[in-house]
Amino acid sequence: MTLYLVRHGQTEFNRAGRYQGRLDSPLTALGVEQGRRIGQRLAQLLPDGADLVASPLGRAAHTARLVAEAAGLSEPRLDDRLMEVSLGRWDGMTDEDIEAVYPGARNGTDRWNWYFASPDGERYEQLAARAGAWLAEAAASPRPLVAVSHGVTGRVIRGLYAGLSRIETLKLPVPQDAVFRLTGGEVEQIDCAPLETTVNGR
Fold this sequence. Notes:
The chain has one domain (about 1-195): Rossmann fold (3-Layer(aba) Sandwich), CATH 3.40.50. The protein is about 35% helix and about 15% strand. It is globular and about 55 Å long. A six-stranded mixed beta sheet has the order 3-2-4-1-5-6. The protein is an alpha/beta fold. The chain is built from seven helices and six strands, in the order E-H-H-E-H-E-H-H-E-H-H-E-E. Keywords: Glycolysis, Isomerase. GO terms for molecular function: phosphatase activity. It comes from Caulobacter mirabilis.
């Protein structure tokens, strides 16, 4: 299996410091550029094409369509298992909102584990189970596979693939202008050059 894992481009919520979870917000102009840039890079990496799958949440599906257009791939297939972790009633809130409405609810957590402290959100074990089921299925793909997902879910997919601990997994970087290539048991980050420096497919 060779998997190219992508995070969706920047959204209005990202720019405002608002946690999306299962809610959605549109891509910014930068987010659209990031999707196109990633597609251009994938066109170089995958001259013979690949299958494309994405989370059904709007920001990931939009990014996947941009990738498909720039890389010459077919329309993405949507898979619920690639959706972002649900923060339950915390979806759409900022740090300040959470503390104001649920004071002290994140006490005892840290900057990586707090996502799973919501009273009605998804737990790490649930996220790892669905991401792991998807990854096991993806491993059987005979063709290269491009997957467009999210920050926390993408971390978990990479962590499971690399056999990392929970805390190692949650500390992984989540850039919106890079591709992660998973193959041969290794994970490689491939940064994507800005559009203005990309000339004749280079």
